[in-house]
Recover the amino acids of this structure.
């Protein structure tokens, strides 16, 4: 069994999952574009220049950090792109 805690810090939402021993097993935090690592921001600018950022979540789990970025182009084209901390695209999905 795991436990999930949700809280807001300013305008950013946070979610933390704990196991029964009280150890953190996963964290998700909303963030803004200025908080992205340089490598992730650079890949976003070069690969997705025509898109605007809708939302960003930093996800920490099992010693790995990824960044889930929801982007949109116009009214009808939306993507969810997951980056590793080095700016590599881990996954990309059309919404």
């Amino acid at each position: 069994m795991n436990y999930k805690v949700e809280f807001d810090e300013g305008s950013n939402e946070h979610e933390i999952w704990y196991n029964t021993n009280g150890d953190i097993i996963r964290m998700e935090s909303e963030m803004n574009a200025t908080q992205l690592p340089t490598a992730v921001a650079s890949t976003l600018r070069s690969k997705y220049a025509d898109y605007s950022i809708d939302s960003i979540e930093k996800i920490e789990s099992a010693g790995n950090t990824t960044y889930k970025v929801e982007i949109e182009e116009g009214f009808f084209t939306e993507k969810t792109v997951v980056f590793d901390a080095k700016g590599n695209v881990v996954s990309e999905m059309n919404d």
The chain is about 10% helix and 60% strand. The first helix runs from residue 38 to 47. Strands lie at 2-9, 12-19, 24-31, 52-61, 64-73, 77-84, 89-94.
